Amino acid sequence: MPEVPAAAVERVFRAEYGRAVAVLVRAFGDLDLAEEAVQDAFTRALHRWPVDGVPPSPAGWIITTARNGAIDRLRREASRPGKYEQAARLAAHDEPDEEGAVHDDRLRLVFTCCHPALAPAARVALTLRLVGGLTTAEIARAFLVPESTMAQRLVRAKAKIRDARIPYRVPYEQDLPERLTSVLAVVYLVFTEGYAASSGDALVRADLCAEAVRLGRLLVELMPDEPEAVGLLALMLLTESRRDARTDAAGRLVTLAEQDRGRWDRALVAEGQSLVRACLRRDRPGPYQIQAAINAVHADAPRAADTDWRQILALYDQLQAMTPTPVVALHRAVAVAEVAGPAAALDLVDPLDLPRHHLYHAVRADLLRRLGRTGEAAAAYDTAIALARNGSERDHLRRMRAGC
């Protein structure tokens, strides 16, 4: 009997959930049915794959199983208006034609979930759930809100789609620009969840990083004249270039200042910097372009000691003027510490309202440690450790705390 651990099904779930849901939504336009059918298919995989082994095409098995389950369910509910006809169409593989400019199922689903009738936060959260396959808890941490709040937000978003009869179709060309802001936010949150996983033991979820970069490339191909789409792709490429250097041989987190820059992917650095230069020539700055420029400055420095922190601080000044959020202020304070010292940075960090954000307490702890206030630093590290949900980050914070 083949041994298929639950972790194998989990890996397929992470990689293929969004694709499976997108295919089924395109086929019959019922979001709840698509999600339930895909979830049922993964439940069946947990029972069947240990007996039969992992199929040659796990994604194909999941999609076929989910599709057949959806057809069976629609036939059982044939008395409901339109359900039998829908099931017959599915069984005959008579799927609706693509419309508009988006030809990728997952990217298409991102755009349709970002319908203007939904609140901006709901658009992002729902797309993370459907396309990225993130759990409610993971999305809640990405938004820095309680899990119960996020669960209610997802329920309301689905109810809005159902009650308003929002169609699951490709947006027309004229509708694409107004959806762009939410789409970019979705793609970037998928990337950040992959680059610094909010839970689990591994620091990185490479599948989500790859999916976000793939979607970013498709966005640029779709809308090459949108500088923020180009800026987001540049930001992701420059960040992704450092992935191999972010952990040591034992899998422990390595900070940016301590990374071996010889392990950075120079091809990704070159591509990202080229895109940043293209954005600069357009002279239509936006938040993603500025963040990409910050990362390009880091990439320019052969050693951490060579980093042009004054240029980075100037870019953060521009970013904060555009997006005056506590998280941006926190990152700006890190640059202030390098230019004006930890005391000046601490004065900026202390008033920030980020009590549940573990990075806030980690930054504050580091500044206190550099000021020699080790008792306060240890307490701040303790708070950061308690709030961190990623095992690799917790281990790093514990090592830093031990140094106090």
UniProtKB/TrEMBL annotation:
<dbReference type="InterPro" id="IPR036388">
    <property type="entry name" value="WH-like_DNA-bd_sf"/>
</dbReference>
<feature type="domain" description="DUF6596">
    <location>
        <begin position="179"/>
        <end position="278"/>
    </location>
</feature>
<dbReference type="Pfam" id="PF04542">
    <property type="entry name" value="Sigma70_r2"/>
</dbReference>
<keyword id="KW-0804">Transcription</keyword>
<dbReference type="InterPro" id="IPR046531">
    <property type="entry name" value="DUF6596"/>
</dbReference>
<dbReference type="Pfam" id="PF08281">
    <property type="entry name" value="Sigma70_r4_2"/>
</dbReference>
<feature type="domain" description="RNA polymerase sigma-70 region 2">
    <location>
        <begin position="13"/>
        <end position="78"/>
    </location>
</feature>
<keyword id="KW-0805">Transcription regulation</keyword>
<dbReference type="GO" id="GO:0006352">
    <property type="term" value="P:DNA-templated transcription initiation"/>
</dbReference>
<dbReference type="InterPro" id="IPR013249">
    <property type="entry name" value="RNA_pol_sigma70_r4_t2"/>
</dbReference>
<dbReference type="InterPro" id="IPR013324">
    <property type="entry name" value="RNA_pol_sigma_r3/r4-like"/>
</dbReference>
<protein>
    <submittedName>
        <fullName>RNA polymerase subunit sigma-24</fullName>
    </submittedName>
</protein>
<dbReference type="Pfam" id="PF20239">
    <property type="entry name" value="DUF6596"/>
</dbReference>
<keyword id="KW-0731">Sigma factor</keyword>
<feature type="domain" description="RNA polymerase sigma factor 70 region 4 type 2">
    <location>
        <begin position="111"/>
        <end position="161"/>
    </location>
</feature>
<dbReference type="InterPro" id="IPR011990">
    <property type="entry name" value="TPR-like_helical_dom_sf"/>
</dbReference>
<dbReference type="GO" id="GO:0016987">
    <property type="term" value="F:sigma factor activity"/>
</dbReference>
<dbReference type="InterPro" id="IPR007627">
    <property type="entry name" value="RNA_pol_sigma70_r2"/>
</dbReference>
<dbReference type="GO" id="GO:0003677">
    <property type="term" value="F:DNA binding"/>
</dbReference>
<comment type="similarity">
    <text>Belongs to the sigma-70 factor family. ECF subfamily.</text>
</comment>
<dbReference type="InterPro" id="IPR014284">
    <property type="entry name" value="RNA_pol_sigma-70_dom"/>
</dbReference>
<dbReference type="InterPro" id="IPR013325">
    <property type="entry name" value="RNA_pol_sigma_r2"/>
</dbReference>
